[in-house]
Amino acid sequence: MPAPRIRRYTTSGLRTSLLSVPGAVGAEAVGLRPIGEVMGCVVEHAEDLTSSMRRGYATALDRLRAEARDLGADGVLAISCTVTRPRRTVHEFVMLGTAVRAAKGMRPRQPFTTGLPGPDVAKLLLAGWVPVTLAIGVHGGTVYDIAMKDHPGREMPAPTELVTRVRAAAREEFLAAVRSSGADGGLVSATTLHAWPLGRTGATAVAGVFGTAIARFRAGPASTEAHAVLPLDGGLPGG
Fold it and tell me: Most buried of 114, 182, 203, 217, CB within 10 angstroms?
């Protein structure tokens, strides 16, 4: 059954959008009409931080996509992800975006999702690429080293290795998410790293890689604007 606010949309005819004016114009230029604001949220109790982060992002995205389906959308643009921590072991995940419907053409089996704004999605479509899904890689870890407290003012090898390892693992998880979606490549739009000490001899770090899985639907010139395309076959975009 549709969420109460989706029922209000469908009965009142009210349509809201989180897109900027350039974002809405860019979407309209390639035949994507904004039809409503959609949201997905969940509150997670973090027994294991990494698995809780993965589950929180995935659940919030699933709920946002469900609202988009209830609106009859073909996709969701400009998705923002925020995480707040009301308590030390509790995290709230909120995803917000604007659902769009294609003016013509084939309807996808499920709405695509992307954090890219309207103008960037327009550039992708004109270059022969289509967004598939928001892709997220998250990894974290903890390290303890008694030597950390004995060398103030110097590099600490254990935390350095931890940060390097969790960043690499988050990127690999992002690529795995792109592969599992059936896409041809991915656009990395943001990376995050949060690290904090555990007493005088420990450290924890959590890294995230956020972007959009994309698929080639026709031959066309590769976009020359920001964001690197990461083809999964090792070749060059459009090659």
Answer: 114
